Description:
Blueprint: E1 3-9, H1 13-24, E2 29-33, E3 49-50, H2 59-69, H3 76-96, E4 110-111, E5 121-122, H4 128-142, E6 147-151, E7 153-160, E8 166-173, E9 179-189, H5 210-217, E10 222-223, E11 228-234, H6 245-248, E12 252-254, H7 262-265, H8 275-287, E13 297-300, H9 306-312, H10 314-324, E14 333-342, E15 345-347, E16 359-361, E17 366-367, H11 380-399, H12 411-423, H13 432-446, H14 453-470, H15 484-508, E18 512-513, E19 516-517, H16 526-529, E20 531-537, E21 543-549
Parallel strand pairs: 1-2, 1-9, 2-6, 9-16, 15-17
Antiparallel strand pairs: 3-5, 4-5, 7-8, 8-9, 10-15, 10-20, 11-14, 12-13, 13-14, 18-19, 20-21
Helix pairs in contact: 1-4, 1-11, 2-3, 3-11, 5-15, 13-14, 13-15, 14-15
The structure holds flavin-adenine dinucleotide (FAD).
Flavin-adenine dinucleotide binds near residues 190, 192, 365 and 384.
Amino acid sequence: MPSHDVLIIGAGLAGQRAALSAAEAGASVAIVSKVHPVRSHSVAAAGGINAALNPEDTWESHAFDTVKGSDYLGDQDAIEIMCREAPDQILYLEHLGVTFHRNETGHLGTRAFGGASAARTYYVADITGHAILHVLYEQLMKRSEQIDRYEEWFTTDLLQDDDGRCTGAICRDLRNGALEVFNAKTTILASGGAGQVYKPTTNGLIVTGDGIAQAYRIGAKLMDMEMVQYHPTTLAGNGLLITEGARGEGAWLLNAEGDRFMETYAPNKFELASRDVVSRAEQTEINEGRGFPDGTVALDITKVPRRRTLEALREIVNIGRDFAGVDITREPIHIRPGMHYIMGGIKTDSDGETTISHLYAAGEVACVSVHGGNRLGANSLLDTLVFGRRSGAHAAARALQMPMPSTNASRVSDTEKQIAAIMNRPESGRRIGAIKNELGETMNEYVAVFRDEEGLQKAHEIVRRLKEEAAVAAIDDRGSVFNQDVIAAIELGYMLDVAETIVVGALERRECRGAQWRIDFPGRNDEEWLKHIDISVNGADVPQVSFSPVTITRWQPEERTY
Length: 562
Ligand SMILES: Cc1cc2nc3c(=O)[nH]c(=O)nc-3n(C[C@H](O)[C@H](O)[C@H](O)COP(=O)(O)OP(=O)(O)OC[C@H]3O[C@@H](n4cnc5c(N)ncnc54)[C@H](O)[C@@H]3O)c2cc1C
């Protein structure tokens, strides 16, 4: 049985950063990932990472922009920490070898991003996540005496002792189907977001909300799950992302009549208003008949000098050509708002501690909460690094002061039975893929940019029915070697749990704030709803709602305009 001081589930940017900081603190670390670490979804991050590093910029300005971007739902103590620690994270990465863009004077150069009052986004062309992930992975390999990597291992369940403390996890070796108990003094969930709950989404197939559901199932509180971000520029049909970096470089949004419509919705910031504002503006144009027949508006990147596009947005040039048949340096490309990110997640404090003792969470899986109702572009990579580092350090410090817990290894046989039951289901009922498609399309129809009670109730009924169907859905592969069928069945269960908590949160919050735009409850209502919605499961698989206060340090809520 592998035993470590700190077990980290997930090897994207949050998990890798946590692993390095736990190892630096002297802990023995295991890091588990269901895919090879450099295939973690952080690799897709394109546009960059925010920090007030320039001497003319201040962390306070970054923090205020983040608070305003969050529609005042972000916890300001956590936001202050993130923005204060941001410059150190950029320098840390640069010293490790991340090749951030340098300007003509040889200094680190920035680009503008949405909702920001200064150009403070540091980047590596439009492959920033890729560049950072690979450099951190080199460091994991360098520290291989302290950090054991379990690559292509799938965590199925978290373990607890009789006092409710998390004592590790059960993981399946995808190469041969073997199950193992991973014993750990402290456990950090860094397993990413839940984009696949929606269809389409900008997120890859592996982003299935596993950690959120696993924590929820053992009683952890989730927070603000209704806050799901629709990114303003995704390709129709396949949902692929055109990075906000394109608008940062100067691209315009145009409706089918050729109007630069953001002038009406955000006269000061135009295309660089925060994402919720831009996505609603686009959807309004489309709904009111000023979009194109394919339900889109246009992103005109020809406003950016061609040479600059080829240098700074080269992957977007490839995506435009390969997935839309458009040369973005010569003609506008059709885009629309698409599901991109979940602001909600496992409730944590600013050291990553969840409501379950000895269980931490960091990165997109967590809700600290620094993004509140709407995340600013390029603040997520920052979140993964700042809170990945802090959770790693805190989890290590705690682990180094305690003995190894004794884990009940017999829990493996429960998981074995559950997996055998999935494999032995009779060939009846619906396919896993069909259920997943219906789930994604339902969420994209009823729990999207605009929401109302009727649609949300309908979504809830469908999710409950899909849960029943998923419980008997048969799979084809009954083998043990790389059995992705059985993994897909388990992931579907996680996605349905996550979907239900999103819908329940969206039904509960009766106001318009950030990404939660209830057309049946117009306007932000600070008097009743300036609070977090916490969701935990009660014994009967029913989400239970409670509330917690938003931390306000220095910025009182104001009207939010761009
Ligand atoms: C296309 C795209 C572009 C983006 N661009 C930017 C950007 O420019 N700037 C920005 O700030 N943000 C950006 N984001 C958001 C940002 O990339 C993510 O929020 C962030 O990278 C998430 O990192 P993470 O470490 O939390 O999770 P991930 O990188 O998703 O890693 C999750 C890890 O958990 C593992 N895992 C999951 N479930 C299990 C399981 N059951 N068992 C074992 N392992 C498991 C996975 O294998 C993986 O290693 C972008 C997102 C997308 C989709």
